Amino acid sequence: MAIISSKQPAADGEQPPRARKKNTPKPLATPEPAVLADGDSELLQAEIATSEEKLQEESLRPSSIQEYIGQKELKGVLDIAIQAAKVRGESLDHLLLYGPPGLGKTTMSLILATEMGVNCKITAAPALERPRDIVGILMGLQPGDILFIDEIHRLPRMTEEILYPAMEDFRLDITVGKGTTAKIRSIPLPKFTLVGATTKVGSLTAPLRDRFGLVQKLRFYEVDDLTLIVQRTAEILSMSVTTEGAAEVARRARGTPRIANRLLKRVRDYAQVKGHPVIDEPIASAAMEIYNVDPLGLDWVDRLLLTTMAEQFNGGPVGLEALAASTGEDSHTIEEVYEPYLLQIGYLQRTPRGRVVTMAARKHLGLKGGNDGGDQLSILG
Ligand code: ADE
């Protein structure tokens, strides 16, 4: 399988190498990052992937469905789709993968290409600004190839409209000429599979979403699966880690392999400096303490958000903008970076009237009082 990554696709139709072997993709066009606070909190943000980290991620990627840990339901669905497409000798249906960042959407796309024995062309919506960017890529595809578009919810309208006939009828409609003499020329395309990835499925237009035969969600990973991922990474990086040490890292990784692997590297630094050849639970836990990552993977911004809601807004409901103003955090960052995990672990609830901090969060932070369901029970009791 060749992996071809595009930052700026050539205007005149880039010709990807056809050799079907595994190679290393160049870095993707960098999406606009959410605005983040300085300091240790970046350790826990799945969005931030430095180019060095991206390169290392390549070497840690599982390369087959068997090797891929977790996401059982997704793997089940894709396994069937692969087998069916192979039996029929067809390309895979277009696939939309959605879910929080760092859960393995790109990895899954690369695995699909390997399993199907085709190339995977990787790009991202911000690199497809001009219509000719997508035209060049589409014209360079071979039968069966996978085209992976990250952040697909950010496609410009014209690019998206070029994709409609390409996805539906494998046809490129190009307007030739201008004004009243303009004509549409149709160019046939090879049958290919579009894999779109997004963290914001609700931001996709309905016509684009409807053109995907399969729409699948990636979920936060269970601690058991993350423990296995940490152990696998440790082995690849020739690190010695006990099961308990791996579990300690996994528990603090916010359900996200990218974060787990990042934490593991920080723990390795700590263990090395302290002269511990083996990473066990006490070492992993001590390392996490100095990086300000608490036993559930919360950092100081998470704690600030929850504490502010509890103490300044009597537990909520509080509007996003009010919370942003009170904490000095950017509202998009709160919504896209912090909230998903706090919602997942049941520390925050979103109600029509605003965000509410839960009893579980209060207990974790050692805070009293509040007005959510749990508190009402205690009042009644
Ligand atoms: N490394 C990162 N994510 C992984 C996964 N889901 N399975 C195995 N190794 C991984």
Brief synopsis:
The chain has 381 residues and is of the alpha/beta class. The protein has 15 helices and twelve strands. It has helices spanning 51-60, 72-88, 105-116, 131-139, 157-169, 206-210, 223-236, 243-251, 257-273, 281-290, 300-312, 320-327, 331-344, 359-365, 373-380; strands at 3-5, 95-98, 120-124, 146-150, 171-176, 183-188, 193-198, 214-217, 240-241, 278-279, 348-351, 354-357.
What does this structure look like?
There is one protein chain. By secondary structure, the chain is α/β, with parallel strands linked by helices. The chain is built from 15 helices and 12 strands. It has a 6-stranded parallel sheet, covered by helices on one side. The chain has a two-stranded antiparallel sheet with strand order 5-6. Strand 11 and strand 12 form a beta hairpin. The longest helix is centred in the first third of the chain and has 17 residues, at 72-88. The chain is globular and about 70 Å long. The structure holds adenine. Residues 60, 62, 68-70, 104, 229, 232, 257 line the site of adenine.
